[in-house]
């Protein structure tokens, strides 16, 4: 039932977006990205090398806290940010220091993301779903490894490729280049960037190509919502998933 309501809302949102002229819809998305990237780069933001690394592999995105934030913002525009949220929660779950309350936490994650018709149900095959459910009674730090691998593979084959072609990614690259040009001394400190010129970065990004080869505790989005990343981002790279 919950998944049905969510699907209806998603359909309505997409229908509303398609009902307005394409130029208007594009302007809305660009405006939201502009606000997001402006805040991100004012707080520090990724370097040019960081952004270039994101194009080399999806794992590079997941290893970098800024990469995760920018990729998550992209998924929000595709109404699929539950995938990266689930991936991050699995990462956090695996890295918990103790096993106390681990089973209770495992059931909570399963019911929110894995169970059929879960509020934020992710796209998993039935075998993976059933196997994970069986392991809940003896939950340990590796309970969600298979689920996490499946979702990571799904994001890499699908959303990641579109991300690299998106205005969001290309503009992040332009802004990282802009900041690099504003290096003020040999210690690598940067002078203040005039973000009123961010519009020009978006214009330039549309004609760019993908390169060849103190983050805030809360990111506030243009729609008024916010996402706390303090606990999750500090643990993104502490443990890598064993690839099958």
From TrEMBL:
InterPro entries: RGS, RGS_sf, RGS_subdomain_2. It comes from Schistosoma haematobium. It holds the Pfam family RGS. Transmembrane segments: none annotated. This is Regulator of G-protein signaling 3. Residues 57-173 form the RGS domain. PANTHER family: REGULATOR OF G PROTEIN SIGNALING, RGS DOMAIN-CONTAINING PROTEIN-RELATED. Gene3D superfamilies: Regulator of G-protein Signalling 4, domain 2. The lineage of its organism: Eukaryota, Metazoa, Spiralia, Lophotrochozoa, Platyhelminthes.
């Amino acid at each position: 039932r919950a998944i049905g309501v969510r699907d209806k809302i998603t359909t309505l949102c997409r229908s509303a977006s398609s009902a307005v002229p394409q130029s208007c819809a594009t302007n809305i998305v660009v405006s939201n990205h502009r606000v997001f990237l402006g805040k991100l780069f004012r707080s520090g933001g990724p370097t040019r090398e960081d952004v270039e690394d994101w194009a080399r592999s999806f794992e590079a995105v997941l290893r970098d806290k800024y990469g995760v934030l920018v990729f998550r913002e992209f998924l929000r525009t595709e109404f699929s940010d539950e995938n990266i949220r689930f991936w991050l929660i699995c990462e956090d779950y695996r890295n918990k220091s103790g096993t106390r309350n681990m089973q209770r936490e495992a059931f909570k994650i399963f019911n929110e993301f894995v169970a059929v018709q879960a509020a934020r149900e992710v796209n998993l095959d039935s075998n993976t779903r059933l196997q994970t459910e069986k392991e809940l009674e003896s939950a340990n730090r590796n309970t969600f490894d298979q689920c996490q691998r499946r979702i990571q593979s799904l994001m890499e084959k699908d959303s990641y490729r579109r991300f690299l072609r998106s205005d969001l990614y290309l503009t992040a690259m332009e802004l990282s280049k802009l900041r690099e040009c504003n290096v003020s001394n040999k210690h690598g400190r940067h002078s203040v960037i005039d973000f009123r010129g961010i519009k020009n970065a978006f214009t330039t990004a549309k004609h760019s190509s993908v390169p060849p080869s103190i983050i805030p505790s809360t990111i506030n989005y243009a729609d008024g919502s916010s996402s706390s990343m303090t606990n999750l981002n500090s643990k993104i790279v502490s443990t890598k998933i064993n690839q099958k």
